[in-house]
Structures are given as structure tokens and as C-alpha cells.
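Hey all, sorry for the wall of text incoming. These are the two entities for the joint prediction.
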Amino acid sequence: MFYAQLIVNGLVQGLIVGLAALAVTLVFGVARFANAATGDTMTFGAYAALIGHKATGSLVVAGGAAVGATALLSLTVYALVFRKLAGRSVVALLVTSIGVGFLLRSVLGIVFGHNQQLFTVPLVRPIRFNGLIINPFDLQLAAVAAVALVGVFLVLYATPIGRRMRAVADNRELALVSGIRPERVMIALWLLVGAVTGVAGMMLGMKTIVSPELGWEMLLPAFAAAILGGIGSPVGAVLAGLLLGVAQELSTPFVGFTYKLSISFVVLLLVLLVRPRGLFGRLEGVR
Amino acid sequence: MSLQITDIRKAFGGFQALDGVTLTVGEGQLVGLIGPNGAGKSTLFSVVSGFIEADTGEVRFKGADLGRQSPAARARKGLLRTFQVPREFSHLTVRDNLKAAAPGQTGEGLVGLFLRPGEVARQEVEITAKADEVIAFLRLGPVADLPSGRLSGGQKKLLELGRALMVEPSLILLDEPFAGVNPVLIEELVERIRELNARGIGFLIIEHDLQALTRLVPILHVMDRGRILASGTPGEVLEDPKVREAYLGGAA
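and here's what came out:
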């Protein structure tokens, strides 16, 4: 029963990792680089949600603020930075994204200070179900994550722009010859990625404590999940995120709370050694 | 004139790949382009389709100078190309491959997608119908919902042709459409190209399979070392001693 409880706790954590990994994998698949600013963009989303929540006390407003502000930030960073570097090497883009992350973290530190801030959510009596303790707030968060996921997958698989995003991710050169406008695809991509990252950041902030370092620490699990899921595979990223979240929670009795993050390292190493294309991978995605 | 290529030159380092190529393809004509390996045929295709820029010379399409227009812009004008090694969006289904290539979709931007969902839905119906029409025409029905990466080489060539057909083409450049395709599918491809030509679509075809090509095209150009060596009907051209020496000698 103890372990079942850990699994339940791990699922919410896993949804957060999964959303972050989804953002990483979408950028990697379409824009073709590992975006190390993903974590700090999440932090931005958490602060946006915090402001929205403090001003109105409404979680819906908090969510809207996180999604809207982070999507705009994401698009702005693309327009000012990544667009200018299109066609440069993967390393140049990766290093640039690390720089963008640093900048975001520093600005958030200056503006909001390094004090830890909390979402003040009303305490509710937990639901007991066959001895399992489930926090209703976790259920709400899980519902938010589910809505976000359904939204992303609908855009990706049921709309013309999603089809074109997948086409560009699949074969960029061919997409160009086929008359697909890359700029439009990129704008849609960064808005979508920003929205997903915002939701992930808000959830992380609500589950833990909001500080400027909040998202940075999520970067490794997010990358690990993206690689485990097979880089470029959206479904894989989400499932791998869930797996990783649960694995981290399950490991706490053995390695302690402090080291549960290290599980991501272990998973990352194992995947790269044993199955470099990930669980749902496609090698040709990494060109 | 549909396509007018005038005195195109292109050097890669010290190698003169195209050394003053002049060639025209009339409205709705079927024209073949042959020559030994390294003659510059594929380079010429890349220049015409906008993949590489010529050093000098001019490409005009339907009378207008194409200048430095991107491949995508040329595609939207109706000048399409296929590749020697077929390319496809390998994780997309055959139908989605075709739908992705349909031009002028309102839903290709997020703004249009969310502000005009009705229009997007209507276009989706049209585009799907058009894709299904192309699928039926190319006899790709049985594989329409498979990821295109799983198609055979010949089916991928058909899909390439299909993607070009989604754009209302007026001229399609085919780069070795019969290479690596089994004989049954070659017949299939020849038939489809004939039918499309009967609808007024022009073709410029690079091909090494002379038997299949000469049955298809009334006009043949031979390239060698970056120049047009001879032009005429297949009969005339293949009898030309210069061609026999350069092409057949070079191929041996």
C-alpha cells in the first residue's frame, strides 16, 4: 500500500515532467535543437500563475495567466533570438538557449527576489480510497494537465497546422519544396510550446515552492523523459515523463528525497547505453 | 513557352557542372533529358527548381523571370519537382503527405485556425477530397492510411508525383522516375504520366531507362559535360554519332 501511495504521488509529478518533456521534444522535432531554456520558461509560467492567483484568488485566472504570458514569452524569444539563428549549428542553438535560460532566471530573481513563495491554496480534506490518500487538489492539477495534453494533441494531429508541423519535423527540405511556409509553422510551434511550458510551470509551482531556480531543476528530468520517450515523439515524451515521475517517487524510500532527482541521470544513462532511440524512438528524427 | 532556360552556367569550385545550357519546354510538352552520369542533369533541375543558384543565365517560367525565388514560391506557381531518391514525410500517412502539400490552407496559421474554424473545416473537406482523388488516380488506395515510410520504392515515386498533383502543377520535373521501380509499376507510372499530360501538364524527365523514356517522350535532349549535345526526336537523337560517342561510350 505504501508503494501504491508513492505511485499515486508520482503520477502528478510525472505529468509535470511529461508536459516539460513534450515541450522539449516538440522544439527538438520541429526546430531541431535541445532547448535548455525550457526549465526557466517554466519558472516564468509559475510566476505568471502566482501573480494571477494573488490578484484574483482564482486558479482559472492563474492558469490563463500562465498559458498566455508564457506563450507570448516563448514567441518573443523565438522572434528576438532563435529566428535569427535559424540554420546555425545545433550546438550554437543549444548554447544560446542556455544563455536565454540564465537571462530569464536572473531577471526573475531581480524582479521577484530569491525568497521562496507559495501558492496559498485552501486546504481540503483528502479523499481516502481503499486506504490510498488522494489530494483533491492533485486531481484538479491532473485534470488541468489532461486538458493541456488533449489540446496539444488535437492541434498536432487534427489540424492543418499540426499536419504541417509534423511534416516539417519529418523532412524539412521536402516541406520547403512542397510550398509549406516555415515561418508560420515556427510561430505556431513556439506559441504551442510556450503554452505547454506555462502549464507545466504552474503545476510545478503549485506542487512545490516558487523560486527563480524552480524550473531549472526540472530540465534534467525533462530531457531524460524526452530522450527516453524517443526524441521527437510527443506521445513518447508524455509516457516517459509519467514513468520517470513514478520511478522518482518509488526511489525515495531507497535513495532518500534529496537524491530522487538522480534517478533521471540513471535513466538517461541507461537509455543512451541500451536503447539510444528511446522507447518510441525514430532514429531519423535526429538528423 | 512554359519553361525557358537560357545560357545557364554553374561551377562548383573548378568543376563546370553547367556550361551554358539553353533549353525550352513548351506548354504541356513531354520532354526527356538524358546523358551520362555527371553530365549536369540533376544540377540543372536544382537550378530550375530554385535549390541552387546559377552563376549566370536565366530561367523563365510562363514568361516571367524566376530570379532568386525559393523552391516553395516556384512550387506555388505550378513548377514542381521530384527527387532521384524519393522523399516523403515518412511518419505521416500517405493521405496526410498529400494533404500537407495542399496550398493555401487557412488553418496553416494559428490565427486562421482559431478565428475561422468554419473555413478551415470546409477546406479540410475539400483537401481530403482532392487527396482521395489523387490517391485513386495513382491507385494508392490500399496504402492510403499507412505511414509513407513503409511504401515500396515504386509507391514512393507515385507518392512524389501525387504531392506535385496537389498543387495544380503546370510543369513537373521528374528526376529518374523509373529508377529502382519494378517493371509493372513502371508501366503504371508511364500510363499515369500520359494521362496527366493529356490533361495539359508538361513534364521534363531525366531518365536512364531509355526504353521506357523513348516510348513516352516525343522530344529528347542529350546533355554531356554541362552542355546540350543534341536535341530532336528520340530516333534522330539516338542515331546522332556525337551522342553515340558521348553517351553510349560514356555509359559503357
